[in-house]
Amino acid sequence: MSLSRTTRVIACLATVTALTSLTACGGGGDDAAGKPDGPVTLTFWGWAKGTKDVVDAFNASHTGIKVKFEEIPSGTAGGYAKISNAVKAGNAPDLVSIEYPSLPEFVSSGALQDIGDAFTEADRAKFLPQAIDLTTLGGKNWAVPFDAAPQAFFYRKDLFEKYKVTVPTTWDEFRTAAEQVRKADAKARIATFFPDDPTTFEAMAWQAGAQWFKAGEDSWKIDTADAATTRVTAYWQGLLDDGLVHKNASFSPEWTGSLKNGTTLGYLGASWGAGVLKGTLPEQSGKWAVAPVPSWDGKPASGMLGGSTFAVTKDSRNKAAAVEFAKWMTTTEEGVKARIASGTSSAFPAATALRPTAKKAFDASFYGGQDIYALFETAGASIGKNWSWGPTTGTTNTTIKDRFGAVTAGGPTLADAVKAGHDATVAELTRRGLKVEG
Amino acid sequence: MKARTRAAALLLTPFFLLFTAVLVVPIGYAVWLSLFTEKQSGLGFGGAETVFAGLGNYTAALGDRAFREGFGVLLGYCLLYLPLLLGGALGLALLLDTALARARRFFQLALFLPHAVPGIIAALIWVYLYTPQLSPVVQAMEAGGIGFDFFSPGGALPSVVNIALWEWLGYNLIIFYAALQAIDRSVLEAATVDGAGAWRTAFSVKIPLLRGSLTMVGLFTVIGSLQLFTEPLILSRGTGSAVTSTWTPNMYAYSAAFDRNDYGLAAAASILLALTAALLSFAVTRLAAGKKDRKERTA
């Protein structure tokens, strides 16, 4: 060897360092695997409101399984990136929260494991069928649904009365109401278009009967140019062009500010939004009410906006325990009660039998004691059954979000944004080696 | 001799340890990652298979309009930012150089302070100041009849440049000021004796003597600009602004990894960006060195 001593020392040290840093990334996350007799320790990552209270309640009442909860940022705000990285590095937690739209992407990247054997037919029968459909991909079960998230329209009851605006039941009436609101107060708008959140827009398309991602035998059909999507796109473009809605980022300080000072009178959201508003605007308690989201023909119709599921990561050796804990959170009275009694969650359980429990646990005084769960019940049953999510939601939604931001009067339109999302989706599916039409 | 070698090895060890752990290994891993891609079959729910892609990820990145447009944004950014930064910092440094001693110390500190604020905090503060319904600045502008939407497609670039200026003006001002202080006072006295006023001294004596600092600051700024990430990322998330998630090449890599789950593409994009930065630094330093050589030869 012609290497000098120094070089060899350095090379040796370099190798040692490299090896240490590699091993530091592996392992972890399954401390209990070596001692099957003791209690199983699960790690669980999530961000939904009230999760900590649920975990505490579980740990207090169970001895066989101990859950270690770590709060992560919400999915698209960085939570999903964190989960993907952890799975890639081999130190993912056992159980993670994933919203319906992102579930197929995690499944297709191989980050999760099939839980069909632990989450049985009998378990699945307890849930809203739409929620089970959205978590069953390629004939396998990948997650335990927690909430169904039917759309809802939250509005300032006091200001609607003051401005003599009737609560709209159709989208035509919604436009009329929007005009009345602006006439009554030039600075006020009935609701907000969220350029940063394509899922709100997608829920509208879903409600109208669109079906963007169709799974065939072994190929995908991407269809965003159907009549339903076109109708929704044109409608919202009209509201934006005529200045009938605000255009602000969702949950941004400007959105909250406009709610606080009464220049935004309504919020087109979903069931879980009831808890968010209550937590954000405590001083407006009693002034709000909930109505079904307007529909095209006046009959109940809903898309689904968000909604969480619990999935087991691919390397977890505690599948049985993780699914048991997930089932406890979603299908037992104690589990649901613990979350909603925390006061910040208005989740609408996908497990149908637990809705009375949720209703009883939720303090609806913010909505003047209105029976909001009865409203969610009707809306939940009307969730469109055709919609499913594709394995490239990340690409689809990032592209649409980027284009929504550039939508301006005389510039690019919402239709351009949807088209761009379509093209990016087809390109990404092709790139991954999948067959696609559209 | 042997003892000296051993001492050198010992003293160099900490450096090489860190150098390996935080630079060589990650770069090697990125290069490795960039050669692979994930392929799926059927509907894609059977999990992914990692296959060797050769340079496939590189051609995919270069073939993506969003990635190429990112470099266009960087070019536009440099064209707008560099003159403003150099001009502003130089002008202020010259002003400071002529100001009263006590005012000097105050302004030096006041102008440098923004640099002590981390980029991410600065971006958050500015997002607040850009937001129409919240910002006193936008409201004051509107009251004065100036309507400017910082989040619009046309406003995106100026918005980011403004944040960067706020952060970096004071820092570069200090560099220029230090260089001005280093100018031999006898040269300035000679200029005064020859009857040059403050303007004449600034343009004919001070600025020519600052050429070295100007080149250095310009070079560092351009190379730093290639890494543009934090400020536009904050603007792109949660504001509904026209800054897209692939606005700069760095953001493209980030979005490829964390929005699209495509680590191979992200690694390839990062390496392409790093190569651009390396080539640019090499070219500029060679150019600067060549100029210096010629100057020394003619002198």
UniProtKB/TrEMBL annotation, chain A:
Keywords: Cell membrane, Lipoprotein, Membrane, Palmitate, Signal
Keyword Cell membrane part of the UniProt annotation: yes
Listed CDD domains: PBP2_TMBP_like (cd13585)
Family annotation (InterPro entries): Bact_solute-bd_prot1, SBP
Keyword Metal-binding belongs to the record: no
Domain of life: Bacteria
SUPFAM superfamilies reported for this sequence: Periplasmic binding protein-like II
Signal peptide: 1-26
PANTHER family in alphabetical order: ARABINOSE-BINDING PROTEIN-RELATED (PTHR43649), POLYGALACTURONAN_RHAMNOGALACTURONAN-BINDING PROTEIN YTCQ (PTHR43649:SF33)
Protein's recorded name: Sugar ABC transporter substrate-binding protein
Organism: Streptomyces termitum
Lineage per the UniProt record: Bacteria, Bacillati, Actinomycetota, Actinomycetes, Kitasatosporales
UniProtKB/TrEMBL annotation, chain B:
Membrane topology reported for the UniProt record: Multi-pass membrane protein
Species whose genome carries this gene: Streptomyces termitum
Residues in ABC transmembrane type-1 domain copies: 69-284
Name recorded for this polypeptide: Sugar ABC transporter permease
Keyword Cell cycle attached: no
Family annotation (Pfam families): BPD_transp_1
Transmembrane segments: 74-95, 107-129, 160-180, 209-229, 263-289
GO biological process terms held by the UniProt record: transmembrane transport
SUPFAM superfamilies found in the cross-reference section: MetI-like
Keyword Mitochondrion: no
